[in-house]
Amino acid sequence: MRYVLLGIFVLLLIPPSALAAQASPSFVAARSLLAASSSPGNAYVAGVSVVLTAPVAGDLSAVGGTIVIAAPVVGDALLFAGSINSRASVAGDLRAVGGSVNIKESVAGDIIAFGYSVQNSGRASGSTFIVGVDTAVTHGASGPVTIYGNNVSLAGDFAGDVTAFMSGRLTLAASTTIRGTLSYEAPDKAFIPASATIVGGVTYTNASYLPDVGTSRILALVSIGFFLLARILGALILAGLLAGLFPKLAKTIVNRAFAPRLRSILLTMLLGFAIFVVTPVLFILLALTLVGIGLAFLLLIAYALIVLLALVYAGILLGSMLARRFARRETVLWRDGVFGMLALSLIALLPFIGLFVVFLLTTFSAGALALTFFHFVFPRDEETPKML
C-alpha cells in the first residue's frame, strides 16, 4: 500500500503533458550535472548541482540542491531545489519549490512558486501564485496575481487583479500600473507613489497578527497550564520510578516519619532546613575564593540533586503515609509514589497552607535523605547498607 501511494504521488507531480509525449523521455542523474545536449522529449534530471544549457522539447522535471535553467523549455517546468535560477523562457507552466527562487525570463503559462525568497522578473502570461517570506514581482504579469508572504514588492505593468496577504509591508515601485484591482491585507497601509496607476482601485484590510490583550492573557494562561501539566506528569513518573526501584530507601524515610519520639522527627526536619539554608551560603563563600570554585560547582550540583530528591520523596512520603493510614500496608509500592506526588501537587495549589505543608514534607525528606546517606557511607551496624 505504501508503494502504491508513492506511485500516485509521483504521477501527480508529473506534468499532464508528459503522459502524452510522443518522443521518448530522458532520465539523467548525477552529483554534478551539466546538460549540454538538447532533449527531444520530456527530461527528468536530478543532482546536487544541475545546470541545463540545452533546450528541452518537452516538459522538464528537475530535483537538486542547485538548479540553473539557461535554455528554453518548450513544455512545463517542475523544479525542486534549495536554489532555483530560471534564466530562460518556459513555454508552458512553471512550478518551483525551493529556498531561493529566481525567475528572470517570461513564462507563457502559469507561475506557481514556493520559497523563502522569491524574485520574479519574468512576465507570466497566465496566473501567478507565490508563497514566500520575501517576494518581489518586478516585471508585472499578464494574468491575475496572488501572493502570500511577509514583505512584498511590486513593479511593472499588471494586466489583471493583484491580491496580497502579508504580515509585513507592501511596497509599490514608481510608475507601477495595475489595470485591475489591488486588494491586500497587512498590518499597515502600503505607500503608493503618486506615479503609480491602479485602475480598479485599492481595497485594504487591516490584519494585525499580534494578539490583543485578551488573547495574550488566554495564551499566557494556556501556556502556564501546559507547563504545570508537564511538570506534574514528570514528577509523577519520577516518583513512581524511585518508589518502585528503591522501595527500601522509601520505607526507611517513611519509618522515620513514624518514629515514636516527636523529638526525632523535629531534629530530622531541622537538619533538612539547615541543608536548604546553609548550603547556598557555603557555596557563595567557596565561589569567592579561586581555589574553592571547583568545589563550589560540585556543591551546587549536589545541592540541586538533594532539592530534587527531597521534593520527589516528599510525595512518596505522603503517599506511603496515606497507604499506612487507609490501606494498612507498610510496603512501599510504585503507585504510592504516583498518588502521593499527585496529592502533593494538588495541596501545593492551596494558598499559604499548601505551600507550608509542602515545605514541611520537603524539609523532612531532605533531612531523612541526608541521615540515610550518612549511615550508608558510615554504617554502624550490618543492616544499614541493606536500606538501599
List keywords for this structure.
13-stranded parallel beta sheet; disordered N terminus; 2 domains; alpha/beta; single chain; 3-stranded parallel beta sheet; 388 residues; 7 helices
Domain tally: 2
Tell me, briefly, the overall form. elongated
Structural class of the secondary structure composition? Answer: alpha/beta
Question: Alpha-carbon distance between the termini?
Answer: 53 Å
Order of helices and strands: HEEEEEEEEEEEEEEEEHHHHHH
Radius of gyration: 35 Å
Strand residue content: 25-35%
Roughly how much helix do the residues carry, as a percent range?
40-55%
Q: What about the largest sheet?
A: 13 strands, parallel
Q: Tally the helices: what do you get?
A: 7
Low-confidence stretches: 1-22, 382-388
Mean pLDDT score = 82
Total strands? 16
